[in-house]
Amino acid sequence: MPAPESATAVVSAARTDPGRKRADNQDAVAQELMPYGGIFVVADGMGGHRTGALAAQLAVEKICEVLRAEKPLPKRLLEAFEVANGVIYEAGQKPESRGMGTTATALWLDLPYALIAHVGDSRAYLLRKGQLSQLTQDHSWVAERVRQGLLTEEEAKHHRWRNVITNALGSFPEVRVDLLGVKVEPGDIFLLCSDGLSGVLEDRVLAEMLRNHPPDEAAERLIQLANEWGGPDNISVVVVAVGDHIPNLTRTYSPPLEGSAGPVRLQLGEAMEVVSTQVTEPPRPRSFWERWGNLILLALWLVTLGYVLFSQFSRPLSP
């Protein structure tokens, strides 16, 4: 999608494909270029044939509806996800729609800054100076075990629970949303995608396609390659390329982004707190004794008690 004349710094492309193994497509994508940058969303629906597609479409529509009417701010992006969550949760209360939900990853490009909101295991990547980095952390059972040091990346790829999502829009009345901010540099390329792409192609392939092709061609090639590798799931891709000339502006939320060389995790409260994702350490894996110590002690106590009682009552009675 070419940028409007007032936003020539950005070029984007959005594609979605059912893949090779599924007849229906429960993914949804959106791209809306604005004078300040644009709104870009990927959603991967869950549930039955109709409900999964509906959840993804509602997420994309509601997020874009809220954002296009608002001035870019982290709080507004969070509110957009909360609105989408409420609408999907309400729709899921109908008997025929039980279990509906969706992942959602949104990029609100407010040049020279980028705001990213994320729920589920659809991802946001950044290609900067030829190097690809994953901006979001998957909300999935296996990803959380990898962060805890209980699974390796390779084990997670083949685990039987690799598709179990721990956070989604519409599953509960309230939702936990990850918020990130990035100071954009000339030549940056953002990639949003569902796990139908990231779960099939390696990062080096994603980087190669983004480095060597403009957004339209990159999106087409990525979907083609995912299908060539089996296309086991729906595939959605949004590619957003930033040109060499971007405005040098500031925003009320921008000071922490100005001082960081990478993505910044945003936490909203009465005052906005920031924690750089570059220095945040993963949770320390709990030791065997920390995880199972109390249960082992309880088991030993029960065995001891059982032995005492058995000894007491198994003695022969005196004549």
What does this structure look like?
With 319 residues, the protein is α+β, with helices and mostly antiparallel strands. The chain has 2 domains: 281 residues, PPM-type phosphatase domain (Phosphatase 2c, domain 1, 4-Layer Sandwich), CATH 3.60.40.10; 33 residues. 34% of the residues lie in helices and 25% in strands. The protein contains 9 helices and 12 strands. The strands form 2 sheets. A 7-stranded antiparallel β-sheet has the order 2-3-4-5-8-11-12. Strands 1-10-9-6-7 form a 5-stranded antiparallel β-sheet. Strand 6 and strand 7 form a beta hairpin. Helix 6 packs antiparallel against helix 7. The chain starts with 9 loop residues before the first strand and ends in a 6-residue tail after the last helix. About 6% of the residues have low confidence. It comes from Allomeiothermus silvanus (strain ATCC 700542 / DSM 9946 / NBRC 106475 / NCIMB 13440 / VI-R2). This is Protein serine/threonine phosphatase. Its EC number is 3.1.3.16.
